[in-house]
């Protein structure tokens, strides 16, 4: 069949789909001839809603003033798959094929070419394409026309070979008998996802950090292209080697233990490759291999924040962009570099949305991350499932310190099944705080609530020599402002005779709820929501962080430069009032800014929060150190945001941690009242 006939048939096919054909994509001279001399259909389907999504950059697609893709590395995939029905009949193997073409492109475009190897030879033979051609795609596209073709993400493919070769379950057959296939995405569900996730209806280009285009032809070829054009249009980009990108992605997945999780999707993987391509292209740290789990980076950042000598373990996030930016900003005057880096950050939408577990396997349950709004960076921090001493804190955990009446050594099995409270339960006000299903008993919860939130003077104790005031002004400390009296829970522990499944061991068993970190819409940054309904009194998580002394925390806060967003640290001051004089190293706090667990993302709500923090004694009867555990104050519905009352005094302008403008929307909002 002569080439022009094919083109005519393709036009007929597109017309049959209701697409006018006056906007020909050609070489600028009205020609639609490709480099192979074969005339090509010039139309693309406008299936995407997002502006400026163009299917460009295929190898050997060039225009007079706009050199398009020249990828030197090509990923060649060997699928055996029915794309229309979405079923993956066989595993797909990605491998990298190197070609010699290495022209720099003004838009970043990496090409993944997917081929059915068996039909490749036939396809090339039929259309007479050169070695590096992409069969069936427009040979030349002018810049002008690229912008005109802005909503395209699907290529119109020429009618060449009957589609049955690919085993496609569905193809478009225009009335004139021409067989032209249009594939928007590998599967219909993926196509939907692509529309919603990647390219929202808004014209906010920054929310599109790259785009995957997939097209197949009846020749038996499937083309996947990762289009990063928008993200890169405004800056200089150094194209990374595709091999390095693949290695980067592989490392990332291997480190996350999430090579194939329950939410695995090929499209998401491809998106990740696209993002990694961007990352490596614009981030010299990542390119030089300094990214993943890089204590070097954390170390330098930590030092800039006055925290020395940290030996961070490998549970660190690979993305340290905000901190890297900060550290560079403070140590270097290379403005353009910073500007570029900032821009790189801004184009990375939901970089963590593919992470199925922010805990990196540190918890029994996975905690996913959702960035529905896009563009937000997760703060750099190391996920730790248990508290860890930063430096000077005195936390003495030893069996010798646990007296016989501080444990229930004679218990067997589950303490909750015994008629009388065991020695541990006696420490909890003479009764078991937990029900057999691991929830707080209603009465206990209510009594905790009253001691926590009621701002009555009677609920406070006052130290004679308050560590907080001491750190503020050592020579002339002010009077203690008071510390809330708290009810403690005492859990059974190592010296107890009961087993690990004892009902009086809830907090120490860790998180069991399905939680998700998500980007809030009210300007609070990230937050935590439950993915399942939680009954009243359910243990959700504990607040985990570095155990720092009050003095260390004060020093940290003094050194913060104000631009940094940080978590709200908690004072372990529940027992301070009972002490005559607390040493500095005994006045402890938890700081989850750099090392913490999911609780570091739980936002504040004034007064009527759905979580309450309760002190829990586990390893030591010495109540300078204890765990702070969150329980639900009421039934919480699935997908509700979890929040707790930080106990902030918005009037206290001298507090070392600067209060934020509260957006909790509670009718009891203390900050709102204050502002009114
Ligand atoms: C423990 S962190 C919570 C996680 C935080 N939203 C994030 O994105 O990392 C505390 C910080 O979150 C923000 N935040 C928490 N609750 C808030 C609220 N009710 N209104 C406004 N900002 C809030 C403040 O910036 C605060 O310093």
Number of helices: 16
Span between termini: 78 Å
Strand count, sense and closure of the main sheet?
Answer: 5 strands, mixed
CATH evolutionary superfamily of the largest domain: SET domain
Principal-axes shape call: globular
Q: Name the helicity range.
A: 10-25%
Rounded Rg? 30 Å
| Low-pLDDT ranges | 21-208, 284-354
Mean pLDDT across the residues is 65
CATH topology-level name of the largest domain: Beta-clip-like
Strand line-up across the major sheet: 3-2-4-7-6
Task: Give me the oligomer status.
Answer: single chain
State the domain count: 3
Q: Which small-molecule ligands are present, each listed once?
A: S-adenosylmethionine
What fraction of residues sit in β-strands?
A: 5-15%
Text of the CATH class of the largest domain: Mainly Beta
Pfam families: SET (PF00856)
Keywords: Chromosome, Metal-binding, Nucleus, Transferase, Zinc
Domain SET: 513-647
Main location: nucleus
């Amino acid at each position: 069949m002569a080439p022009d006939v094919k083109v005519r048939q393709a036009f007929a096919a597109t017309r049959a789909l209701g697409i006018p054909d006056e906007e020909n994509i050609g070489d600028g001279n009205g020609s639609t001839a490709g480099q192979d001399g074969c005339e090509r259909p010039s139309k693309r389907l406008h299936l995407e809603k997002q502006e400026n999504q163009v299917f460009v950059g295929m190898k050997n697609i060039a225009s007079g003033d706009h050199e398009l893709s020249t990828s030197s590395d090509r990923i060649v995939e060997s699928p055996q798959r029915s794309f229309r029905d979405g079923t993956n009949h066989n595993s797909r193997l990605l491998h990298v094929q190197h070609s010699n073409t290495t022209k720099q492109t003004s838009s970043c475009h990496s090409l993944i070419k997917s081929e059915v190897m068996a039909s490749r030879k036939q396809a090339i033979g039929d259309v007479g394409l050169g070695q590096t051609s992409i069969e069936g795609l427009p040979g030349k596209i002018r810049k002008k026309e690229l912008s005109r073709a802005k909503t395209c993400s699907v290529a119109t493919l020429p009618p060449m070979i009957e589609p049955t070769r690919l085993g496609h379950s569905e193809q478009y057959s225009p009335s004139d008998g021409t067989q032209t296939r249009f594939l928007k995405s590998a599967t219909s569900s993926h196509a939907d996802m692509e529309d919603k996730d990647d390219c929202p209806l808004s014209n906010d280009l920054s929310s599109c950090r790259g785009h995957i285009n997939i097209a197949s032809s009846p020749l038996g070829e499937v083309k996947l292209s990762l289009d990063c054009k928008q993200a890169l249009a405004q800056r200089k980009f150094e194209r990374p080697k595709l091999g390095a990108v693949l290695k980067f992605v592989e490392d990332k997945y291997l480190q996350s233990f999430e090579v194939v999780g329950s939410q695995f999707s090929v499209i998401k993987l491809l998106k990740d490759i696209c993002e990694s391509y961007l990352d490596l292209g614009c981030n010299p740290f990542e390119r030089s291999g300094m990214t993943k789990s890089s204590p070097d980076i954390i170390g330098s950042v930590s030092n800039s924040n006055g925290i020395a000598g940290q030996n961070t373990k490998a549970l660190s996030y690979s993305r340290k962009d905000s901190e890297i930016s900060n550290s560079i900003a403070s140590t270097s005057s290379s403005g353009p570099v910073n500007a570029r880096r900032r821009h790189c950050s801004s184009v990375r939408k939901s970089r963590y949305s593919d992470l199925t577990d922010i805990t990196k396997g540190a918890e029994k349950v996975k905690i996913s991350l959702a960035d529905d709004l896009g563009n937000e960076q997760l703060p750099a921090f190391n996920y730790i499932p248990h508290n860890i001493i930063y430096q000077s804190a005195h936390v003495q955990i030893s069996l010798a310190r646990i007296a016989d009446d501080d444990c229930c050594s004679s218990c067997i099995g589950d303490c909750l099944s015994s008629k009388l409270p065991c020695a541990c339960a006696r420490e909890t006000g003479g009764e078991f705080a937990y029900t057999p299903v691991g929830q707080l008993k209603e009465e206990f919860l209510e009594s905790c609530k009253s001691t926590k939130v009621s701002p009555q003077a009677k609920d406070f104790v006052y130290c004679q020599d308050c560590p907080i005031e001491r750190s503020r002004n050592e020579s002339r400390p002010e009077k203690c402002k008071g510390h809330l009296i708290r009810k403690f829970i005492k859990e059974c522990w190592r010296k107890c005779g009961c087993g690990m499944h004892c009902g009086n061991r809830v907090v120490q068993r860790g998180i069991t709820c399905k939680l998700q970190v998500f980007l809030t819409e009210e300007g609070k940054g990230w937050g935590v929501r439950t993915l399942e309904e939680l009954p009243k009194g359910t243990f959700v998580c504990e607040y985990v962080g570095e155990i720092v002394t009050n003095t260390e925390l004060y020093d940290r806060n003094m050194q913060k430069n104000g631009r940094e967003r940080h978590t709200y640290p908690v004072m372990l001051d529940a027992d301070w009032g009972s002490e005559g004089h607390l040493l500095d190293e005994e006045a402890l706090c938890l700081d989850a800014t750099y090392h913490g667990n999911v609780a570091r993302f739980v936002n504040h709500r004034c007064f009527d929060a759905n979580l309450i923090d309760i002190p829990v004694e586990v390893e030591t009867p010495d109540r300078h150190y204890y765990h702070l555990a969150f329980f639900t104050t009421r039934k919480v519905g699935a997908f509700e945001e979890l929040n707790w009352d930080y106990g902030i005094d918005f009037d206290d302008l001298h507090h070392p941690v600067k209060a934020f403008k509260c957006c909790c929307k509670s009718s009891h909002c203390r900050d709102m009242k204050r502002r009114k």
